[in-house]
Specification:
- By secondary structure, the protein is an alpha/beta fold.
- It has a single domain, classed as Rossmann fold, CATH 3.40.50.
- Helix content is about 40%, strand content about 20%.
- The protein has six helices and seven strands; from the N terminus they run H-E-H-E-E-E-H-H-H-E-H-E-E.
- Strands 3-4-2-1-5-6-7 form a seven-stranded mixed sheet.
- The radius of gyration is 18 Å and the shape is globular.
Length: about 210
C-alpha cells in the first residue's frame, strides 16, 4: 500500500508541475450541482466534487453551470485553502430572448458550429458569458442532481438536466458523466445507444484530465 500511495502522490505532483510549467491553470466546469439548495444530497455532491478537483489540482479554477436567476460567487473551503467558485447562471424559461436562456444558447451554439469563418465563431463565443466559460474549460463534469438523468420524474425534468449537456457537446468540449444514477429510461427512444463517436466519458474509477 505505501508504494501505491507514493506512486499516486508523485503522479499528482507531476500533473500539477506540468500545468504550472505551462503557465496555465486547469479549468473545470460542473453541471447539475449547487452549493445552495434545499437538497442536501446535491449540495454534498457539489462539495465532494470540488474537494476532489482541488485535492488533485490545488491551483485549478472551478465554476458551476446551473439554472439560476442571478450569477453568484462562492467561497469554498478545501484542505489546500479557500477557492472562489463562480456560478455561471443559465435560464430555463419562456423568455427566449435572454442571452443566458438555454434555448437561446443552443441556437447560438448551432450557428457557431456551422459558421465557416473561425474569426466569427471566436467572436460569437467571446460575446456570450456562458459560451465563453464553456469554451475556455478544459473539461466539463455533469452530475445531474445525482439521480435526475432519468424519465421517472417526467420527460420535462430529463430535458431540463440534459440540455446543458447537449450545449457542451455542441461546443465540442469533453463531457464527463460523474458518478450518479443513470436511468431508468422508460421511453424507448431514450434507450437508444449513444453515438460512439461522441466525446462523452462515463466516470467509474478515474478519468485522465488535460495537462
Amino acid at each position: 500500500m505505501p508504494i501505491t500511495l507514493s506512486k499516486e502522490i508523485s503522479e499528482k505532483e507531476k500533473r500539477n508541475e506540468d500545468l504550472e510549467a505551462s503557465g496555465r491553470r486547469l479549468t473545470v466546469g460542473l453541471i447539475g450541482a449547487s452549493f445552495v439548495t434545499k437538497n442536501l444530497g446535491v449540495a454534498a455532491l457539489a462539495c465532494g466534487t470540488a474537494a476532489s478537483v482541488f485535492h488533485s489540482y490545488p491551483n485549478a479554477r472551478l465554476f458551476l453551470i446551473d439554472y439560476s436567476i442571478e450569477p453568484a460567487t462562492y467561497k469554498v473551503k478545501h484542505p489546500g485553502g479557500i477557492a472562489m467558485v463562480e456560478l455561471v447562471n443559465i435560464r430555463f424559461s419562456k423568455q427566449f430572448y435572454l442571452r443566458n436562456n438555454i434555448a437561446y444558447l443552443l441556437i447560438l451554439a448551432l450557428c457557431i458550429k456551422i459558421l465557416p469563418s473561425c474569426r466569427w465563431r471566436t467572436r460569437l463565443l467571446r460575446q456570450n458569458i456562458v459560451l465563453k466559460a464553456i469554451h475556455e474549460a478544459d473539461i466539463i463534469g455533469a452530475i445531474a442532481g445525482g439521480d435526475s438523468f432519468s424519465d421517472i420524474y417526467g420527460l420535462r425534468r430529463l430535458i431540463y438536466v440534459a440540455l446543458p449537456q447537449i450545449l457542451v457537446q455542441l461546443l465540442e468540449k469533453p463531457l464527463v458523466l460523474l458518478p450518479q444514477t443513470l436511468g431508468p429510461l422508460k421511453a424507448r427512444l431514450l434507450r437508444q445507444s449513444p453515438d460512439p463517436s461522441s466525446d462523452i466519458q462515463v466516470l467509474s474509477t478515474h478519468v485522465t484530465l488535460p495537462g
